[in-house]
Amino acid sequence: MANCASDKDHAAICKSVIDLAHNFGCKAVSVGLEKPADAHALSEMGCDLGQGYLFAQPMAVDRFHTLLRQRAAKTLRASSVAEGELAVALSGPPRAADLKFLHR
Q1: CA distance 85 to 76
Q2: Is 2 within the bounds of a domain?
Q3: 30 - beta bridge partners?
Q4: Most Cβ neighbours (<10 Å): which of 18, 58, 59, 104?
Q5: Which residue range is the domain that position 38 belongs to?
Q6: How many domains, the chain?
Q7: Which pLDDT tens digit goes with each residue over 59-87?
């Protein structure tokens, strides 16, 4: 839902849906994210995953793997993890855990 960061009614609906997913033991996935403020608000509400033009436009699988590795490498460097560990962490195809709000 758009504008969950700026509209209290939208925020209440988003939080309720996130809680409902978690109460059923599921992950909450936000789809169609376009604004950083909405991604941040949803993350703060406990949303597990996010997808949308904010992160990237639709692309081929090979391009996605490359993008994921580039962003993971940037994150790992920022957190002072040795780059040698990147090859171990991302030696196979991306896992759902690798996709969690890549903008962080």
Answers
A1: 9
A2: no
A3: 50
A4: 18
A5: 8-51
A6: 2
A7: 898 898 888 888 888 766 655 544 444 44
Integer Cα distance of 59 and 65 in angstroms:
10
Cα separation, 55 vs 25, whole angstroms: 26
Model confidence pTM above 0.90:
no
CA atoms of 26 and 68, how far apart (whole Å): 23
61-64 contacts: CB < 8 A, separation 24 or more?
64/94
Integer angstrom CA distances of residue 92 from 75, 85, 88, 98: 18, 13, 8, 11
The DSSP letter of residue 48 is -
Rg of the chain on CA atoms, in Å = 15
Measured in whole angstroms, how far is the alpha carbon of residue 28 from the centre of its chain?
A: 11
The residue whose two tokens read 């991302």 is: 90
> Token pair 């997913």 is at which residue?
21
